């Protein structure tokens, strides 16, 4: 019997496209189903969470996960990446060097524990952390087979220095924004944020998706272009960035 998206706690946002909101930090993970392929967007905050995402995505797609895109290098989005063994992993250029650097990995571990992740779980994730093998410096069209293509776009810096968005063409078009957009709380600007460029990154998201797209934030409910534009204006005011 075929399982439905809803039965597994996923929200179907377009044909073959869905997302789930993970517990703990309300972090979004996405899924795009292709012809014999499956792209997962972000990997969760632990190896166990990554393994669950991979199993559920495989069940929904009807085949194994073949691709993984990491929207940015924060623990709640990347710590589950090692659970996707055999998948082709994509990230914004520079993420591989960052995740391979000892001080950066230690900072990720400390941030995770500070935010409530069990220290042993964080240590396990850091020890097995997987860096992207494919580095997106501009735009990368990913062919998932059949008539399914997605566009990976390096739209940052903004929330971090390495922000990747995923555009899924269709009706409607769907844009996975990572934490460039947040709905369930005010966008978080940590020490690795680049506030002066963040509003421009949201302009690039809007250029990608257009007025009628659905925008999937890194945390919170799916939003429209008006929400993204309002958040862009709020960030510009917050950080004193002029248009």
Task: Outline the structure in words.
Strand 1 and strand 2 form a beta hairpin. Helix 4 (102-114) runs antiparallel to helix 5 and helix 6 runs antiparallel to helix 7. This protein has helices at 47-61, 75-78, 95-100, 102-114, 119-127, 198-209, 225-239, and strands at residues 11-14, 17-21, 28-33, 38-41, 67-69, 88-92, 134-136, 139-143, 149-154, 164-168, 174-182, 214-219. By secondary structure, it is an alpha/beta fold. It is built from seven helices and twelve strands. Strands 1-2-3-4-5-6-7 form a seven-stranded mixed beta sheet, covered by helices on one side.
Features:
single chain; alpha/beta; 5-stranded mixed sheet; 7 helices; 30% helix
Largest sheet: 7 strands, mixed
If strands are numbered along the chain, what order do they take across the biggest sheet? 1-2-3-4-5-6-7
Provide mean pLDDT, rounded.
Answer: 96
- Tell me the radius of gyration: 17 Å
Succession of helices and strands: EEEEHEHEHHHEEEEEHEH
Instruction: Give the uncertain stretches in residue-range form.
Output: none
Number of helices: 7
Helix content: 25-40%
* Shape assignment: globular
Which structural class do the helices and strands define? alpha/beta
Q: What fraction of the residues are assigned to beta strands by DSSP?
A: 25-35%
Report how far the terminal alpha carbons are from each other. Answer: 53 Å
DSSP strand count: 12
